[in-house]
Amino acid sequence: MRELTVLRGGRLLTADATPTVVDLVVAGERVRAVEPVGTVDAGTIVDVDGLDVLPGAIDLHVHLRDPGQTHKETVETGTAAAAAGGTALVCDMPSTQPQVTSVARYREKITSWSGRATVDFALWAGGTDPAALAAMADAGAIGVKIYMATAPGFEELYSADAAAVARVLEVSGRLGWAVAVHVGDQQASDAHRDRLIAAGRRDPAAVLEVTRGPGNLSGLRTVLDLATATGQRVHLAHLSAYGLDALDLFARARAGHPGLTAETCFPALSEEEDLVTQGVYVLPTVFSATARRRWLSALADGVVDAVATDHAPHTRAEKDRGRDDAWAASPGYPALETSLPLAYAAMLDGDLTPQRLVDAVAGAPARILGLPHKGRLTPGSDADLVLFDPAGSWRVDQATMRSKVGWSPLHGRTLRGRLHATWLRGRPIVHDGEILEPGGGHFVRRPGAGDTNPGRG
Asked: CB–CB of 87/118 below 8 Å?
């Protein structure tokens, strides 16, 4: 019989019920039961009185840079950051080097990551070749990432026009897996950028103007039209980067096509303050006061499904290239260690209900990926959980954070609530900021995948 662990007296937060003080019973790697406090007299008792208990977060969108760019991040450092921030499953994009566009590369990446990750991991596939996509689906890929915009190092992932996107959607519909889309119209965005450069615009606000501009909005319209016409499930990556016009377009399209989903990074960085003081360090996703309220409302109302980080660490040197020319800076910033604490603080501040918090960080991502044993704390689910002290607080200090680049755009900010512990499949892996069990994360395959590579469904 698997050993029982009883987390006694914590307030359980779920996506579909009022928070309740309970005993959470764990048997091995899975949740056994949720019982009234004090009614289970067996196993190891862990006193969690006064703490909030919620499912470990699932991050749909990370770039851990390994293999190929390990000067920025590694499996070890990135998954340690995830664990310290309460994320139990990371989903890595196919833009590692070499780009993951064949089953051989996919399997090599699984092998490379195995035994190194502190949290569980799943891997997106990339490319446009139907046979390669089918083979990667069979090998366990959770879905395919479509890139409608490209950059150096992304060439093999690029879907250059609507016809290419439509082909990938058609293949994905047959495979029955998730499709994530980085929208864009490369030619239109390049022309917009060139006009701004010709006008002498090399400031961070100019980069934001293109990111939120007509090129990306045109790409978004193309994807929304294709998804609506075909009925294909489509997930919009980092929708918040494209601004409020993108939110409005998505909300209207979703009303007629429930298979559309979207993610936002947590709206914390301020256009009025952080963009002024940090410049390119906060590109490409930063929010005006009005935009922050709108994106929070979209999360609170369920118009936007999920919080995802688009964790994209770059070294200070790569960011500093943009001090005099913002176009030269690498876009993105580290966010894995701060995303869930930000969302939890928003719940304490009344911006999100406990139910929407749990669904946005765990429940919705699990549904999008089709992972029935993740994202909830019910009998039979994986015992991935986070314990927060709602009476505590946390000051973000980049000197102690785990991401390899060693900086955070939130450095110095104090958040309500303090992460006390993270558990993965029934075992504590973080306690009071200390990593207890590095390297114990498993590969999580797409349910129904036929390949026999290492992993679990």
From this structure: no
